[in-house]
Amino acid sequence: MTSSDFPERFTRTVDLYGETGFARLRAARVAICGLGGVGAHAALALARSGVGALTLVDFDLVTASSLNRNPIAAPADVGRAKAEVLADHLRAACPDTAVAPVRAFVHEDTLDDLLTPAPDLVVDAIDSLNPKLALLARCLAEERPVVSAMGAAGRRDVAALQVSDLWESRGCPLASRVRKFLRRRGLDAPLPCVWSAEPPAAALPPDLDDRTLDRGRVRNRLPSAIAVPGAAGYALASLALDRLVDG
User: Are 32 and 43 a contacting pair, CB within 8 Å?
Assistant: First the structure.
């Protein structure tokens, strides 16, 4: 396959990754788990970069309070599944990418289905602790390729974002809890991740009128805008693209 076989809109991407690298992107299937402020941006970047197939996994609905950091949702989308809204946008903007939206809660009892067929890479952008831990533990235990984002909410300083192995992260409360959980289970393999050295703003009481409460998921409200989660999402996508291109 040569550059002449690719749509013209991918010319600059082929220039960056080379024909062989881009062919790997076109052949790849990626599962993105978590489509909030980080995951939605990561999905956009992967689709526009030419990844062949994306599975978009999220249980939540678009809420009015999430519009400030969602890159594509509009007020008319409030109440719709995040996965469906993002899938509709990507099908129109990136017709070269096969998109499969899945409205599902990531946990031990759903992982077998969510990871079948086996993706070439898992992108973890989940912001709830227990689902995140279940996904990462499964991927590391089964040696599935995975990249992950730690906490991005409650931050204002884009320059505080870091890209490193999880085990090198410092100052991120979520990363600390993930490290502790994995270590207790004897899982210490490298885990490329995006994290912030900026201390997060304090969480606020739950907004019960603006949450999906299924499965007991009442969560505290986290202050957040679009800049830091968006930047984290693109950094996460960059990690994923490098992993796919380099094999």
Answer: yes
Residue 190, preceding peptide bond in cis (omega within 30° of 0):
no
Q: What is the percent of the chain where pLDDT is above 90?
A: 87
pLDDT in tens, 123-175: 999 999 999 999 999 999 999 999 999 999 999 999 999 999 999 999 999 99
Characterize the bridge pairing of strands 121-124 and 146-149. parallel
Q: What is the pLDDT of residues 69-116, one digit of tens each?
A: 999 999 999 999 999 999 999 999 999 999 999 999 999 999 999 999
Q: What are the φ and ψ backbone dihedral angles of 185, each rounded to 5 degrees?
A: -100, 10
Cβ-based neighbours of 37, under 8 Å, separated by 6 or more: 66, 69, 70, 152, 153, 224, 226, 229, 230, 233
pTM: 0.93
User: What is the number of alpha carbons within 13 Å of residue 210 lying toward its C-beta?
Assistant: 13
- 154 DSSP 8-state letter: T
For strands 161-165 and 192-196, give the pairing: antiparallel
For residues 41 and 225, give the distance between their C-alpha atoms in angstroms, rounded to a whole number. Answer: 13
pLDDT, one tens digit per residue, over 176-212 is 999 999 999 999 999 999 999 999 998 788 766 554 4
Residue 38 lies in domain: 3-246
The residues near 232 (Cβ < 8 Å, ≥ 6 apart) are 38, 41, 149, 152, 161, 194, 196
- pLDDT band, very low/low/confident/very high, at 216 (cuts 50, 70, 90): very low
Q: What is the CATH number of the domain that holds 202?
A: 3.40.50.720
Tell me the CA distances in angstroms from 189 to 30, 52, 167, one per residue in order: 20, 27, 9
Number of domains observed in the structure of the chain: 1
